[in-house]
Design goal:
Keywords: Nucleus, Transcription, Transcription regulation. By secondary structure, the protein is of the alpha+beta class. Helices cover 34% and strands 18% of the residues. Among the domains are: 220 residues, no CATH class; 106 residues, Orthogonal Bundle (Neutral Protease, domain 2); 142 residues, no CATH class; 119 residues, Immunoglobulin-like (Sandwich), CATH 2.60.40. The strands form 9 sheets. Strands 5-4-8-2-1-11-14-13 form an 8-stranded mixed sheet.
Length: 1145
């Protein structure tokens, strides 16, 4: 068991928000923390707090057995937040590697699990005797929060009079990266559990929703406000505490197996909310049946808010969701996404809120378990085929990310120190504040897949039994009836039951089943990466054997993708299941894959094809009647091959088998993941044949096939029909699906009662838009047919809305546009080709129609904006981004704003428009008043479509842009860790890990050029480690010791020693050592008597100094741009030292 470094336990915390102002965006309140000392030598307490203004801190001890109680006394305190400015010394080279190192050290210096924090409270000597007796200590902190940049978000729309419209104003908290400290002084640790009391005073026409059971609602004396009082009896940590305040409409749902259900949303959206949450009781009933326990909380509150930080956020007994999830009964597409999102949020109430994690390294457990049981609910609701397709998609996303970006390490504590972590990713994995959001999303997907693998090894029912035991052990402590603080001295007995760790899960599985699953964790949890399997075979007809070979081939190293682990990836070793479909049925074999390959001779159970067989048994138990074996060799009894058919590995599979086998697999296999893989395989040029075309066409026409397989087959048909000159018969088939005889005929009225047919009809025009002639131009019949579908669309008798269908048609038009022969800027409307003019007219009509009858979530407007941008990019209309700026302005729906911003980002990439880039940064990314989700999405768009790439310098690659992004990284985004990490990813994509090439070298820099055959430098920055656990030295927990020089210890560029076979891509500059952070940096009250510590001198890098003395300096002429670029092309290792900071030798 992991022992906390804190010399005290938190027994209970009370949060009181006395007032809230939507006009000034501020709250005022206080909080009380009840601590139980664990050592008589307790002399100081450290709390986490960011953004808040702390007015005073009061200390008092609780009465002893004789009733003696000391008078509360005001304590001195110190505050220091090193994350507010990561790199305090002026560094002209703007080194991202050094920033990441300092960022990790700064976050570690305030990590509560190391007994650190932003606030240091020394205990007065008068309290020492009481503390040494083990009496509980109450700490009261009075604070306020004004204009928060993150953590607490205000949605304060203005009315016609310019004042805040209180009818729609609301505020809510965020739950990312231990963000409770952003609005509340607390111990912001996932392992510090306690009971919670919350009192929130709001205007009388508003509602406050918080974790726990609502005890009472009382009005204030002036009857202008009312106070909501909640009590959460189940112990939980500070990251699981949040609230929402606003003029919400309350809708009480049916009881959820003993728990009360309350739903809140803005008043105009009540009817949509009723329909959206109607399936939530069924979801909870499934979880309770699956886990064998009831909802652990006495109430469940679901709040829909505008401008949400994330789609869903889970707190203890509270779920905050975006209003974008609300939909009516007429909307089909959003219903699926909303049910998935709410199902995951509800699963997180069991694992994530009730059962938490011991450390952040154990985050894969609650995230993986909640994702797994949510996926099982999808299987129950949407079917087994949809579930297998979902698992296949998640696995593909994980493998693609690990191949192109970074390998995902679920448990960094199992790595051999930070050096091994940095070899996987250039950022720190030990703190949530340093993990980029794209990595975190793949992390959750991989964690879910690992839990599913665990279920495959143990058995699904055994895994359910283990999960039931986890919750049963936690629920055996049930303080919900007593409403009293936890008794001192009992924490160690119940606390481990609420905290999950990898070792605790292994011990429980071993105790319940007798199976040791350590090998599974060693393979997928404590090691990064996935398997990339390539299978090939040959048939020995004389011996009736199949010579099968499976290799684990490493992927091609990513180029410009952000440091993917292509070259570092380990090979998979272990068992691999192979399924051989023969005429006599499916036969599964297990091969042992070592570090090189697995080669095995497998027997064919089918002796001869001469024996006529009327039925062929398939893997799912179905019997195939008299299958057509096509051009399969007459003496071959193997129909097709599948590798890891049950997806019991995290893998990417490539199978080499003849074309007829792919045809048979596509036609007759019942595993949808394998059928989808067959469709993708048949798109390869070597398989373009009429037989392939016929096999795909047969699947498209077969209504018994899973609709996603039919959609994938449509895409495959479009990919191969052009080279085969089969466009006309393909168009005829597509037209028949719509009930049309030709491209000019009117199609029947919409009928979406068959949902599978609806999804297919929505996808067919998108497939048709991919058809191109040999000249690369879409056939004119395609846009003509799609335009007719839009013009004569009739949805008057349809029970479902056609918004997404019309949006898909407009998206299809977007794909049919080919580049213009000549670019016209003057009088362009008169010079447009007739097909383009008709397209523009129709899209404009739908755009104007949106103003009168808006579609759901403005999906039609979003697609119309994409068409306008495509016409600009292809040269048909002038590239004027004024229309996109107007639609990106606040006041428009968020999806429309994001679509407009995406068009601006694409314009910046294509036109290299510096003014447009400055506008985007000014209005969105660098604008604190902008919505948090919009700022994050804008940075994500720039990452997907960067204005330029590293080593490809252009007119946008300027020192001004470097300075702007650096300010965001270093200081301006200190509160929003998600946005800071996103900007860091963008910075890495544009400039790499080291000094941007566009920035000049600092003045008075000594440059050392180390070439092969000269002096070698084996210099590594000191390993960044957080401050140690609490010691007698008061300075220990506040020093960022070992900051070292500017050479980061993470990424590909760790060492410079040629003997280690490690080279450098970029040039390095050693920045002057920054002063360490100590208690002298804290802001102390004027009358404080607590001593300040002396700053320790940084250690001198002796090895680098010796190299500087041994290697002659380069001439000044070598520092001009031409020679410097030549040196970079030769991949020379360049090091720099400032003359004023050279260490003594």
């Amino acid at each position: 068991k992991m022992q906390s470094a804190r010399p005290y336990n938190l027994c209970q915390q009370t949060v009181c928000i006395k007032s809230i102002s939507f006009r000034t965006k501020s709250i005022v309140g206080y909080t009380e923390l009840l601590l139980q000392p664990l050592t008589p030598q307790l002399r100081k307490v450290k709390l986490n707090c960011k953004q808040c203004t702390v007015y005073s801190i009061w200390l008092e001890t609780l009465p002893d057995s004789r009733g003696h109680q000391q008078t509360a006394m005001e304590a001195s305190f110190a505050f220091n937040d090193p994350t507010m400015e990561i790199c305090r010394a002026e560094m002209k080279q703007r080194n991202l590697a050094f920033f990441e190192q300092r960022h990790e050290l700064a976050v570690g210096s305030v990590d509560p699990d190391s007994n650190n924090g932003e606030i240091l409270v020394p205990l007065p000597q008068d309290l020492w005797p009481a503390v040494s007796q083990g009496r509980q200590l109450r700490i009261t902190v009075e604070f306020s929060l004004q204009q928060p940049q993150a953590g607490l978000y205000f949605c304060s729309p203005l009315g016609e009079d310019g004042e805040v419209d209180m009818r729609s104003a609301h505020c809510f908290t965020s739950a990312t990266g231990n963000s409770t400290r952003l609005w509340l002084p607390c111990i912001d640790s996932c392992s510090e559990l306690c009971q919670w009391r919350l009192e929130i005073t709001v205007p009388e026409d508003m509602v406050a929703v918080a974790p726990g059971d609502l005890l009472e609602t009382v009005y204030t004396q002036d009857l202008q406000s009312k106070t909501y009082r909640y009590f959460l009896a189940q112990p939980t940590c500070a990251p699981n505490i949040g609230f929402a305040i606003g003029a919400f409409e309350l809708e009480t749902g049916p009881p959820l197996s003993g728990a009360t259900a309350s739903y809140f949303c803005p008043p105009p959206l009540v009817s949509l909310m009723k329909h959206t949450v109607s399936r939530l009781p069924d979801c909870l009933a499934f979880y309770e049946s699956l886990l064998g326990v009831r909802l652990p909380y006495g109430s469940l509150k679901l709040v829909f808010v505008d401008q949400a930080y994330e789609t869903v956020q889970s707190y203890a007994s509270v779920i905050l969701a975006s209003v974008s999830l609300l939909h009516s009964a007429r909307i089909v597409d959003q219903a699926i996404e909303s049910r998935r999102a709410l199902a995951l949020a509800l699963a997180q109430q069991f694992f994530g809120c009730y059962i938490g994690m011991q450390t952040f390294s154990d985050a894969w457990l609650p995230q993986g378990i909640s994702g797994h049981i949510a996926a099982l609910y999808q299987r129950k609701v949407f079917g087994h085929n949809e579930y297998r397709n979902y698992i296949s998609d998640q696995m593909s996303q994980v493998c693609h990310y690990e191949s192109t970006r970074h390998e995902v390490l679920l448990d960094p504590s199992g790595a051999a120190g930070p050096d091994k972590q940095s070899a996987v990713t250039p950022f720190c994995l030990r703190f949530p504040q340093t993990v980029p959001p794209d990595y975190a999303a793949i992390y959750r997907s991989k964690a879910m897949l690992v839990i599913r693998l665990l279920g495959c090894k143990l058995g699904e029912e055994v895994l359910q039994y283990v999960l039931n035991k986890l919750i049963t052990l936690a629920s055996s402590y049930d303080p919900s009836l007593q409403q009293q603080p936890l008794q001192p001295g009992t924490e160690q007995s119940w606390r481990p039951a609420f905290l999950l760790s990898s070792q605790a899960l292994l011990d429980l599985i071993l105790a319940l089943t007798g199976k040791n699953m350590q090998y599974l964790l060693d393979q997928w949890v404590t090691q990064p990466g996935h398997a990339r399997l390539r299978a090939s075979f040959s048939i020995n007809k004389k011996r009736n054997l199949i010579a099968l070979e499976i290799r684990d081939d490493p992927p091609v190293a990513a180029s410009g993708g952000g440091g993917g682990g292509g070259g570092r990836r380990r090979r998979y070793t272990g068992a691999v299941a192979v399924s051989l479909q023969e005429l006599d049925g499916p036969f599964t074999h297990t091969l042992k894959l070592d570090e090189s390959a697995a080669v095995s001779d497998l027997p064919c159970h089918t002796k001869s094809r001469k024996i006529k067989r009327r039925k062929v048994l398939l893997s799912n138990g179905d019997e195939l009647e008299d299958p057509d074996l096509g051009k399969l060799e007459s003496d071959c009894s193997l129909l097709w091959l599948r590798v890891d058919p049950e997806m019991q590995l995290i893998r990417h599979v490539e199978i080499v088998q003849p074309e007829p086998m792919w045809h048979l697999l596509l036609r007759y296999e019942r595993c949808v993941a394998s059928q989808m893989a067959a469709c993708r395989a048949l798109c390869q040029p070597c398989f373009h044949s009429r037989e392939t075309w016929q096999a795909l066409m047969e699947v498209v026409r077969d209504e018994r096939q899973y609709y996603r397989v039919r959609m994938q087959a449509c895409y495959a048909l479009c990919m191969i029909s052009g080279p085969l000159d089969l466009l006309e018969p393909l168009m005829a088939v597509f037209l028949s699906l719509f009930g049309a005889k030709d491209t000019r005929s009117v199609t029947p009225a919409n009928d979406f009662s068959n949902l599978q047919r609806y999804f297919l009809l929505k996808e067919v025009p998108l497939c048709m838009s991919l058809l191109h002639t040999a000249q690369g131009v879409c056939p004119p019949e395609v846009p003509e047919f799609i335009l007719n579908l839009l013009r004569f669309n009739d949805n008057s008798k349809n029970i479902y809305a056609d918004d997404y269908y019309r949006a898909a048609l407009i998206e299809s038009l977007f794909r049919t546009v080919s580049p213009a022969a000549t670019v016209t800027t003057e009088n362009f409307l008169a010079k447009l080709p007739k097909p383009i003019a008709a397209l523009l007219e129709e899209v404009t009509r739908h755009m104007n129609l949106e103003k009168l009858m808006p579609s759901y979530r403005m999906v039609v407007t979003v697609k119309c904006l994409r068409v306008f941008r495509k016409l600009q990019r292809t040269g048909y209309i002038p590239a004027d981004i004024g229309i996109f700026k107007s639609y990106a302005a606040p006041g428009n729906y968020i999806d429309v704003r994001l679509a407009a911003m995406e068009a601006v980002v694409n314009h910046i990439k294509c036109a290299k428009d510096a003014a447009a880039l400055a506008w985007l940064l000014d209005s969105t990314v660098c604008n604190p008043a902008e919505e948090a989700s919009v700022r994050h999405q804008a940075v994500a768009m720039l990452t997907i479509q960067p204005p330029f790439l590293r080593r490809k310098r252009g007119q946008l690659d300027t020192p001004e842009l470097v300075e702007r992004l650096w300010r965001l990284l270093n200081t301006e985004l200190s509160a929003d860790c998600r946005l800071r990490c996103s900007v860091a990813s963008l910075y890495h994509l544009l400039y790499g890990r080291h000094r941007p090439k566009c920035t000049p070298l600092p003045e008075n820099f000594l440059v050392l050029n180390v070439r092969e055959g000269r002096t070698k430098i084996a210099q590594r920055a000191p390993t960044p480690t957080p401050a140690p656990a609490d010691t007698d030295d008061d300075n220990a927990n506040f020093g960022l010791t070992g900051a070292g020089v500017g050479l980061g210890s993470s990424g590909d560029e760790a060492d410079v020693d040629d003997d280690l076979d490690i080279g450098l891509e970029d040039d390095y500059e050693f920045a002057p050592d920054e002063p360490p952070i100590d208690e002298a940096d804290f802001v102390w009250p004027p009358d404080s008597s607590f001593p300040a510590a002396d700053a320790a001198a940084p250690a001198a890098p002796a090895v680098a100094a010796a190299a500087a003395a041994a290697t002659p300096a380069l001439d000044e002429e070598m520092l001009d741009d031409g020679d410097r670029d030549a040196a970079e092309d030769d991949e020379d290792e360049i090091f720099g030292y400032s003359w004023d900071n050279l260490p003594d030798c």
